[in-house]
Specification:
The complex is a heterotetramer of chains A (409), B (375), C (260) and D (312).
Chain B: H1 17-27, H2 32-53, H3 57-85, H4 93-111, H5 115-137, H6 142-162, H7 164-167, E1 182-184, E2 187-190, H8 198-222, H9 224-234, H10 236-241, H11 246-272, H12 282-295, H13 302-316, H14 324-338, H15 348-362
Antiparallel strand pairs in B: 1-2
Chain C: E1 3-14, E2 17-28, E3 32-36, H1 43-50, E4 58-63, E5 66-67, H2 73-79, E6 81-83, H3 96-102, H4 112-117, H5 120-139, H6 155-168, E7 173-177, H7 185-202, E8 205-209, H8 213-219, E9 222-227, E10 230-235, H9 237-242, H10 244-249, H11 254-258
Parallel strand pairs in C: 3-8, 3-9, 6-7, 7-8
Antiparallel strand pairs in C: 1-2, 1-4, 4-5, 9-10
Chain D: H1 2-29, H2 36-53, E1 64-65, E2 68-69, H3 71-101, H4 107-127, E3 131-132, E4 141-143, E5 160-162, H5 163-185, H6 187-197, H7 199-204, H8 209-234, E6 238-239, H9 243-257, H10 262-282, H11 287-301
Antiparallel strand pairs in D: 1-2, 3-6, 4-5
Helix pairs in contact in D: 1-5, 1-6, 1-8, 1-9, 1-10, 2-3, 2-4, 2-8, 2-9, 3-4, 3-8, 5-6, 5-8, 6-8, 9-10, 10-11
Classes of the chains: A alpha/beta (409), B mainly alpha (375), C alpha/beta (260), D mainly alpha (312).
Chain lengths: 409, 375, 260, 312
Amino acid sequence: MSLSKNILRHMTGVAGATALILATSSLTGTLTTTARAADELHIGFVGVTSGPAAAWGTSNKRSMETRADWLNETGGVEIGGKKYKIVIDSFDDQKDPKLAIEGINQMISKGVHYVVGPNTDDGASAVRPDAEAKGVIYFPYAFPKELYTKPAKNAVLGMIANYQSGPAIFKWLKDNEKLQTLAMIAANESDALSQRDGGMAAAKAAGLKVVSGTVTYQSDTTDFAPILTPVIKSKPGAIYLAGVSPAHAPRIIKVGRELGFKGRFIATTGMDAKVLKEGAGDAANGFISVGGASTPELASPMMKEFVTRYTKKFGEYNDESNTKVYALDYILETLKANPKAMKDVNEFKKTIDSFSANNPFVNGGDKPNMKMRYVGMSSFGQKRQIFVPMVINEYRDGDFKTLFVGQAD
Amino acid sequence: MERFPSNPNLPSPQRGNLSNLSRFVQESRPTWPWLGTVFALILLFFVIPDFIASMRPEKQGLIYYQFTQIALLSIAAAGVWLTFYIGRINIGQGALCLVGAYVSAIVQVKLDVSYWLTIPLAGIFCVLVGIVIGWPILRLRGVYFAMITLILTEVAKLVVLNFPIVTNGARGITNIPLPEAVTLFGFTILPEFTADNNRMYFYFLSMFVMVLTFIALFRLVHSRIGRLCKSLQQNEELASSLGVNLVLLRLIPFCISCFMGGVAGALAAGVQHNVGPSIFTVQDSVNYMLYCFMGGLGNLFGPLVGTVILRMGWNYLTAAGDYQLLFYAIALIILMLIIPNGVMSLSPVRIYQRVVGWLGNRRPTLNTVPHNRKS
Amino acid sequence: METILEVNEVSRKFGGLVAVNGVSFTVKKGEILSVIGPNGAGKSTLFKLISSFMPTSSGNVTFRKERISGLAPHIVARKGVVRTFQETTIFRNMTVRETVIVAHHLRSRANLVGYYFGTHLARKDEREFGESADEILAFLNLTAMAHEQASNLPHGHLRALGIAMGLATNPVILLLDEPFAGMNHEETMRAVEMVRSLRDNRGLTVLLVEHDMPAVMKISDRIVVLNFGQKIAEGTPQEIQQNPAVIEAYLGTADESIGI
Amino acid sequence: MEQVVVNGLFSGAQYSLIALGLTLIFGLMNVLNFAHGQMYVLGGLVTYTIVTFGFGFIPPDAFTIFGIDFIFPIALICAGMVLAILGALFEKLLFRTVIRRSKRDESTMLLAAATAFLLDASLLLIFGEKLHSVPDLVDGIISTDLEPVFPAIPFSDSFNLPYYKLLLGVIAFVMILLFVAGMRFTRPGRAMRALAQDRMAAQLMGVNVGRYTMIGFAVGAMLAGMTGGLLLAASGGIQATEGGAKSILAFEMIMLGGAGVTGGAIAGGFILGMMQSVGHSFLGNFTDLVIFAALVVFLSIRPQGLMGKPWG
């Protein structure tokens, strides 16, 4: 990382923002919001990019910005015979549902119909009424099933949910490694706890015995030895980290190994290999997590270029972005398939059922089972989830290796 | 009665037009609340909605929502201000808001009670909570009270998470129905809230409650209770020696504060149609305190002004993108350096006094010849 | 004359230290009684014990045959035993008049709810308190400063304000904590006159704790002398001035400080 | 149980260090420094930057002498210095002005919160949202390999402690001792203690209040920074955004021990560390709730905490 370059970049950024603020205060608010070019396509992002949970939203927003810049550089996106420049309107909800609602209303007021986010369960639930009433399709990174099953209609799950990847991972471990027992830990927060409950159900379905399922930690914890001691004492075969943040995972893994735990750690969220390497080193070997499509076997040249562009733009890549690269392309591809959806989200919903396009981010993205499409029939009873290959990764010596690739339907 | 002879040695305090003015303002107070209320009602219920109605339809929801948020946050902040008024720094209002929101949601969903009833119900429940908590902890002062209330917010969250039988735990309570219409003898007293109009109706509801809150608070502060609270704020021991029942007089404002927190929570539950453990967090508790400081602790409209400034300011700074928090922080620091006592310490009267004082010092009479710019 | 306050064998220990040790005396209605003693004799502690700002370790204080030690300070005040403070303890951000009106708390007939909604009784109370406050301020010669912030008052007037607050509660017995401290001779003499006039005009009983011997000798009907937490003498000013134990206690400088 | 005790002691040592700086600033200025956690994070990230990248043209491995790597202690000292300067600037430019001009002491809370926001925002912008970690200082682990150490005693179980944690524990302990000794035996330390006890009396005794308040703030910030550096190594890394929560944790500790008292901060830290350690082993997901509730009950019975003077 080049710290000085980063600081320099922010200095120019601050100067730019100051100019912007001064400019908007000298003009009237209505002038600046209405005066926008007609051939711009605005896509919203509402999520947390500051405060303790900033990690969740930052990688999300940055992937969108990288992809948008890239598309604009190549002349924009052609929808219905017209070229559009992609603009990302972002809103920082600070993980506060009240602000998330405000964010979605901001988007509505700007005429933005497609929003990525929010990143938390509470936020995603909170924006639902407005999104449905005012015609916004949103792509939350939150797992509650109520958001996607009927009568909910406007949320599209932007990734693989833990109740989809969990059973697959547990089954694989049971079949291939004779896993019998499992322990779980979760942060004392709604997202993490509901993921733990999901994991619990998945473990039961897979026939695993949960030997320790009640241990939770405060999200400000940095010393995990006291928390892991009773978990490891219960002698589990593997430990499931429910909804654990990318910053906590390496610490938990490291402490777990120091306390003598030999089994696997499992997470159903995206992780960053570099952080794992720096934070836990060899202790993280064997750690299973759900990845996107940047494993060497799967990543298409386009995905590789995306990573390069992201790295160039923001200084360093975040592997978590692998799972978050898709949402923008899904929106754009669906709009291409049905240009009427630009103004009317009901058209978008109609298109969902039949939509299919080549997936540019994975090798073999043109094969029928790898194509971009909407899924979720078995989990939600309606197609309210984007299809992404369920890549189950294993961390080994600084890199993720694909353990197996599954599918969510 | 025999008069005690006056002491010529003691300096007689300066008495000029400044004191006369401040006395005038003090003593003429009882007449202007009515004017103020009428003005506020016209502004909030006619001028602003009329202005919003002139906007693009897509934008209206946002503006209504922003005003609604300001209203309900300032209701909670008013409670915090009241605890400041008895000399207690309260960083636990978020806990009460959370409790209020959950009470409203649970009673609606599980017991099928009308939303309208749950608003006072949430307030009353929070008063009970306030009595139980306030009784022991109100003995604490200064940062000790502040810290213990800060912990309370965290406790409230953990209680919600750890007792899923009542609270639905981490999943929260979703799909709270919109308030129904209330009719009496065939007249619709309260209209039905629908997906299309609820932003506007919630605006009216929360503004109404806000106006009520501040009227109630105004009355409180300018009644004898207010003076007693103020005496508590400044010297509890002395107040006690004058026969003031400290335990009771600390508890009453605290319970009112809790009531406001509960009502704000119930309103939020209605506005959001769902509640989860993170709708009010430690950050909210700290924010309420900041609103009070920003507005000024010396004036009861301080929390309202503070909420408007900080909340609008934050929204406005969305334009700064990644640098939003940075700009916000810098703005706060600068404001703090310029007006450390809050915006309301810059009352027009005070500024007028300054000007008059300045004029009075520089030019003894207004009829003197204009003098050069030597000063 | 009727005995209204009785201090019975009152003691107070702080850890191993005995600050007040078995002190007894009585106060009669309408008299001015002073408690004196060298520094550290336990005067201030005794004062807090009587006003119930501090619990006694043993012994008790009765007011009109009713035990008051152990009660909350505000209840003691309600019964008519009201103290003023030694330091310049005031409500800093209130005006003088406001302070005195607040101090009328004990006289209120309406309850808090009544005050909130401004019932007839409450408004009557308010009016009466205002009038009474003006009267007290006039009596203590504070009228000119009625609308000043209390924190802006000069030193001597602050003490007067303290007494004004005490008066406003309509006490039976007023406990004054070093009312003459920090005053020059002339001011002291005026204050002495004032305390006298309180008793003469308002029929108050006054118990005061004081350092200033000349003032005490001038003002008191009776004097109680403490030393090392124990009562060593009690009597009229003349008796005290001639008491060998007292002279002993004030050691060496006896002549000067007792003002013989 | 041995493991639980060791965990508790190790957490306690970390917590005590975090609480010490906070309590110093509180004792001196009556300022509840909301930015303490952010200062701690800044210290950790400065340490991280120096350990990982060295000083610009000097690479980090240039500090290896006789096979011993000195970059970590050097980085730690640098972090302390950076934070001390920052703390002094904060005090001189911001807090002093506001304290002088505001009517109420509590107004500084808004300023403290604002500085916390400022640091939070800058840290996130400069260092990014990821976790940053440094390699272990030493390798190896003391381990009893899943056999109880004292099989005869009930509750006895296995026991693992990596050497680097032992080393950091010792460093933390030495830092606490140095701090306490410094406060007790040096001139500025005594002056600061006098200030914390009675501002007015200290002023009358000729203590330069302005100067020592600034030094105190700087020392408090320095402690926060060095603690950040230590904890970077002790807890597997540091993240730019975790400061706010740490401040609140530190508040809890100084409340428990008694605000403004050095001994209280140390005791509060160790007690909280031990409570968490024991709690997690026996109470499951109710641990934090029970600890918080116990804290509320304890403080309402004993408002000044374990060792505090009543009303600070």
